[in-house]
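Mods, move this if it's the wrong board.
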Amino acid sequence: MTTAELTASRLPAVSLLKKGNGKIRVKRAAQDRPLKIFLILFLAASAASVVALGIDWVDVLVRTQNVPEVLSRLATLDFADFDVICSSFFDSISVAVLATVYSLLGGLVCAVFLAKNITPFKTLRLVLSACFTFIRAVPSIIWVLLVLVCVGFGPAAGIVGISIYSVSFFARAFAQCFEEVPEDTIEALRAMGAGRVKIFFSAVMPSSLTALIAWTAINFESNFGSSSVLGMVGAGGIGYIISASMSSYNYGRGMVAIILVLIFTYAMEIGFTDLKKKLHKV
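Not the wrong board. Structure tokens:
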């Protein structure tokens, strides 16, 4: 068998269909069939969801006439309780910062035992992977509600609940970063007599630093969003101000709180982006 025949035998089965405009379309039956099945199932699930929810789309379209009125109310900013808004806003930031720091440390330690290329305990890696998969499958707000039952209302419940979810996130993300370190580098250090701790801090951590910062930025943004929402379920913070303002039809105060959240989120995005650029230049 020639090289061309051998190469052709390894390629997926395709058929060329020539259209009237002279263009040729490549058709892969083996790939098109699963795609068609997926689309059919997705459309069927969408139709079943609409029927199950019983959404009255006519009523939804009629109510869209209220959008201009609501937007005009939101545009009328109310700074009467700005000191209270700022206090709650900083509470949400504090919850996000503490949850990120605690979960970052816990996730970093757990990632060492999850990474295939550096963990000394294979069985423990499988157990931790299964546990963290279960934790990530449950939304952070559910964990906060469970903690609320134990410790009561307040920011402590938000910190603990968010940290439970974030530890599993950091552990999985950091483990993937550690596994991307070239095996040749690790083997070379082992050949030179370096121990596991020396290898981790001399090769694994420096090689993964940029990725670790990127994952930390993503998680901090997520934690801040969670801390903002969790105020609506009794964990305090800016979410309580937004919920109370909207329920009492004080749209102006609620909009001030929302603007603060948007500004801080955008500032975080710019700050972490600049930090990553500086690290790439080093």
